[in-house]
């Protein structure tokens, strides 16, 4: 892709974010501090102050992710809302399944994701008219039909994926050109970063999300934040 096409994509991104800020307030950006989210962090922090940023602290994130959270606060001076899982629910899950029970089955893993991510997300989105993610089609087979805008029936609001058509090369070109801070685990072959026990480095030629929940099939590799149906914690 030529430089002019890259510039055009950035211009289109500005148009979309301005429209979202103007027409869908209050709107929140779900920031997981991955490479894609850092592109949006840079743009939103510098140009779209009425789009609020929030993140979900599962309690099991890598130290490098916390380091980046602090760096973002120091670098941009933005206020970041942090949502944690309900302590009693986490305690109940661990009492029943142990601290690493999520390795035992897809059901137990999705229940852990529900407790640590999905339920906090619902609280984060309460009162919002729309939310923004850094999801891209190229990331996984579960995301190949992703659209820029869709109605999130589960949370009853509009959902935007502004970078869905961007390539990994374009994401990193933006980060380097604008000197955007990023998670240092990326330099250690972690292209996709989630909770520490559910993320590993990948080998050359592996799929970009093969390091996430690596013990599962590719078709099941979603946490529940971006699918229409989530696991019930009461099962």
Automatic annotation (TrEMBL):
Keyword set, alphabetical order: Cytoplasm, Iron, Iron-sulfur, Metal-binding, Oxidoreductase
GO MF annotations for this entry?
A: 4 iron, 4 sulfur cluster binding; adenylyl-sulfate reductase (thioredoxin) activity; metal ion binding; phosphoadenylyl-sulfate reductase (thioredoxin) activity
Superkingdom is Bacteria
Its recorded reaction(s) are: [thioredoxin]-disulfide + sulfite + AMP + 2 H(+) = adenosine 5'-phosphosulfate + [thioredoxin]-dithiol
Q: Which GO terms describe its biological process?
A: cysteine biosynthetic process; hydrogen sulfide biosynthetic process; sulfate assimilation, phosphoadenylyl sulfate reduction by phosphoadenylyl-sulfate reductase (thioredoxin)
First-listed, main subcellular location of the protein, grouped into a coarse class: cytoplasm
| Coiled-coil region | none
Q: Which residues bind [4Fe-4S] cluster?
A: 112-113, 195, 198
Residue ranges of domain Phosphoadenosine phosphosulphate reductase in the record: 30-201
What's the record's note on cofactor binding?
Answer: Binds 1 [4Fe-4S] cluster per subunit.
User: What is annotated as the active site?
Assistant: 223 (nucleophile)
Q: Where in the cell is it found?
A: Cytoplasm
For this protein, what is the EC number? Answer: 1.8.4.10
Biological pathway = Sulfur metabolism; hydrogen sulfide biosynthesis; sulfite from sulfate
Q: Quick check: keyword Phosphoprotein in the entry? A: no
Q: Is the Electron transport keyword given for this protein?
A: no
This protein's cofactor list reads: [4Fe-4S] cluster
> Gene3D superfamilies, from UniProt?
HUPs
Q: What class of enzyme is it?
A: oxidoreductase
Give a short account of what the protein does.
Answer: Catalyzes the formation of sulfite from adenosine 5'-phosphosulfate (APS) using thioredoxin as an electron donor.
* Protein name, entry field: Adenosine 5'-phosphosulfate reductase
Q: Which organism is it from?
A: Nitrosomonas communis
């Amino acid at each position: 892709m030529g430089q002019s096409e890259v510039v055009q994509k950035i211009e289109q991104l500005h148009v979309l974010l301005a429209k979202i800020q103007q027409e869908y307030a209050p709107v929140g950006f779900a920031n997981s501090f991955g490479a894609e989210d850092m592109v949006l962090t840079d743009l939103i922090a510098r140009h779209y102050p009425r789009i609020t940023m929030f993140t979900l602290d599962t309690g099991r994130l890598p130290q490098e992710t916390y380091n980046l959270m602090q760096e973002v606060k120091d670098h941009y001076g933005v206020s970041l809302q942090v949502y944690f899982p309900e302590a009693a629910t986490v305690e109940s899950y661990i009492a029943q399944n142990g601290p690493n029970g999520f390795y035992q089955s897809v059901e137990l893993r999705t229940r852990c994701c529900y407790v640590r991510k999905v339920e906090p997300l619902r609280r984060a989105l309460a009162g919002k008219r729309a939310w923004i993610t850094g999801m891209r089609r190229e990331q996984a087979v579960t995301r190949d039909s992703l659209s820029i805008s869709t109605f999130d029936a589960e949370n009853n609001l509009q959902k935007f994926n502004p970078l869905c058509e961007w390539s990994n090369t374009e994401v990193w070109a933006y980060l380097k050109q604008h000197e955007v801070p990023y998670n240092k685990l990326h330099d250690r072959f972690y292209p996709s970063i989630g909770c520490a026990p559910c993320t590993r480095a990948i080998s050359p030629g592996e799929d970009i999300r093969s390091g996430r929940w690596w013990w599962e099939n590719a078709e099941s590799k979603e946490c529940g934040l971006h699918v229409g149906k989530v696991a019930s914690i009461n099962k």
